[in-house]
Design a protein that fits this description.
Blueprint lengths: L1 H15 L1 H5 L3 E9 L4 E4 L4 E3 L2 E6 L4 E6 L6 E9 L1 H7 L6 H10 L3 E4 L3 E4 L7 H8 L7 E2 L5 E3 L6 E3 L8 E4 L4 E4 L2
Parallel strand pairs: 1-8
Antiparallel strand pairs: 1-4, 2-3, 2-5, 5-6, 6-7, 9-10, 10-11, 12-13
Length: 183
């Protein structure tokens, strides 16, 4: 008689924690940057290069720091919070309340926000010393254009989009096959 009650109790625990069984306690976090190739560091210690993926416990909230030479460093907080799909998977626990406690304890009903983490990197401004060196460079400087993030070639006046090009980097004029500097 006691064996039957124990078996029913164990089955209720195992079948009652639906989100833990269906969704699991881990989630794949993706970090994507424009441009790609940035270094990613999580506050929990993991590192990678974008595009990067990490398997993380759904209960954890953490910081994502992205850096790339010539660009400003960006930081995003990834929060773990209850999601609609996790709560739906836990809904079957109404009959077995201990299952809801297990799902809450394991974080199985949570998801990461944001996921994926999409970061548009911003070119770092040029420091005054580097600007002086550029003026002495053998390459001419690009000319201002009418729109932000655009410059004109000093050779052909063609407009180039340099929003993703760090200041002080060489840009190629495709018409004449010559280089100039993104100021």
């Amino acid at each position: 008689m006691n064996f039957g009650r124990i078996a029913i109790f164990c089955a209720a625990i195992c079948l009652g924690s639906c989100a833990t069984v269906i969704r699991g306690t881990n989630e794949k976090l993706q970090v994507i940057t424009t441009p790609p190739g940035a270094n990613v560091t999580l506050s929990t210690g993991e590192t990678g290069v974008t595009p990067a993926s990490f398997i993380k416990n759904r209960r954890d909230s953490f910081q994502v720091t992205v850096s790339k030479r010539g660009y400003l460093t960006s930081m995003v907080t990834v929060e773990s919070r209850a999601s609609t799909s996790g709560v739906a998977a836990t809904a079957a626990n109404v009959a077995v309340p201990i299952g809801a406690a297990i799902d809450a304890g394991t974080g199985a009903w949570n998801s990461f926000y944001p996921n994926p983490v999409n970061i548009q990197l911003t070119p770092a401004p040029l420091d005054p010393e580097a600007a002086r060196k550029l003026r002495k460079s053998r390459y001419p400087l690009g000319l201002p254009a009418d729109q932000p993030g655009m410059i004109r070639s000093p050779y052909t006046q063609r407009v180039y989009d340099v929003r993703q090009v760090p200041h002080g980097t060489l840009v190629k004029d495709l018409d004449v096959d010559k280089m100039f500097v993104n100021p």
